UniProtKB/TrEMBL annotation:
Protein name, per record: RNA polymerase sigma factor 70 region 4 type 2 domain-containing protein
One GO molecular-function entry: sigma factor activity
One Pfam family matching this protein: Sigma70_r4_2
SUPFAM superfamilies for the chain: Sigma3 and sigma4 domains of RNA polymerase sigma factors
Amino acid sequence: MRLELFNQVANLIGLKKRSREAVWLIEIEGMTCSGAARQMDLSVSTVSRAHARYRRAVQAINVMAPHLPM
């Protein structure tokens, strides 16, 4: 996934800076949720919720993509 696309989705759902960085660590760097939480000094719960919101947004975009004008 390109950084630009990642940031568009993160902006769309309003991820805060540290949560955004934690989700990046999970999605792009392949880190676990607990590892990303520890590195960003966030609770696992916060990171887990942010990641779930991000994944739901990506899924919704993928569902809608065939119906959007090119």
